[in-house]
């Protein structure tokens, strides 16, 4: 049995494991284990083998031949999840050739599936992973169309630990941006939306008419109508970008009328109607730093939004949004810390990055908590993960230790010693 200690040199140790399949069981001992499902365990042990957690508890013996990591009291958490990113579909915002976030089309592009455009070699994925983010939703740009298209769920590991689950949800706008696309008034938004749903049902019943060119006129092309059917049949969540309290109430009513599986995105004024959101059982993905309204529909934005929604019983997930969504998704834990500083209980803040999104996206059976049978997405931290300066010392995804090396760390090492001649990169 080999024991590895958590200390300043752990980055070198972690790199020895990187990208290799789990060859032997791993036991993390003497950790402050945040299970997120069964409380926090002091001097706890987490054991995993073949990519799956096999034991969590106190005083557990490491399996024969296991690699043992002595956490020395450090925080151990599930891998974190950012539920709204542009990972893999945007590299340089102003370089069109690296931007696969949207499909230029008329009002609708529900059929747009961004998964085929995801680049697993994106430099932004390792940068995100080394901050403890092991899963992420990558979503289409919500700026130009009412229906933006379908997002994907990614496991951010290297090699075999990287995976893409396409068509995880449909994303759309409601509110000020949507009304500009549908006639300039909120009433027009709802009129067109209801017509789109009616047309999708018509398509479902009359596919042969579409095949034979005998179908009536619809507001959406055939591909979009077909893409909406999983939403209308309750098989795909509809993620609605919405801020104003009255717009949120309208979305709640729509979800009840059509029996939709809805997730609210942003919901800057969600706290105003928190009880209604909770009663409807609708989860919310939010940015807890959103307190400076950029539009009239978000005048009620507040740093206490996350705390008030949680107190009302709303299931929340924390994400990095706004102008930071493209590149700063790695800072989700820091954003959770901001929510905690403004009233959200610490354990609830951690759940908003693990257990809650796992339940929202239908993967709670294999991810989101440190429990037997779950995927071994496990992170050891050098301090409280919700603190601004926190960084992982070890990151495991599906049992595989991940390298903590990124493009930034390579540049740092290249230029650390300025007295030595720099190695030419083109030789």
What does this structure look like?
The chain has 427 residues and is an alpha/beta fold. The protein has 2 domains: 2-78 and 373-413, Urease, subunit C, domain 1; 80-360, Metal-dependent hydrolases (TIM Barrel, Alpha-Beta Barrel), CATH 3.20.20. 27% of the residues lie in helices and 23% in strands. The protein has 13 helices and 17 strands. Strand 9 and strand 10 (162-173) form a beta hairpin. Helix 4 crosses helix 6. The longest helix has 20 residues, at 186-205. The model is unreliable at 5-20 (pLDDT under 50).
What oligomeric state is this? single chain
* Backbone shape: globular
Q: What is the CATH architecture term of the largest domain? A: Alpha-Beta Barrel
What fraction, in percent, of the residue positions are helical?
25-40%
Per CATH, the class of the largest domain reads: Alpha Beta
Annotated CATH homologous superfamily of the largest domain: Metal-dependent hydrolases
Distance between the termini: 42 Å
| Helix and strand composition category | alpha/beta
What's the helix count?
Answer: 13
Order of helices and strands: EHEEEEEEHEEEHHHHEHEHEHEHHHEEEH
Beta-strand portion reads 15-25%
How many domains is the backbone divided into? 2
Biggest sheet, in brief? 9 strands, mixed
Summarize model confidence as the mean pLDDT.
Answer: 90
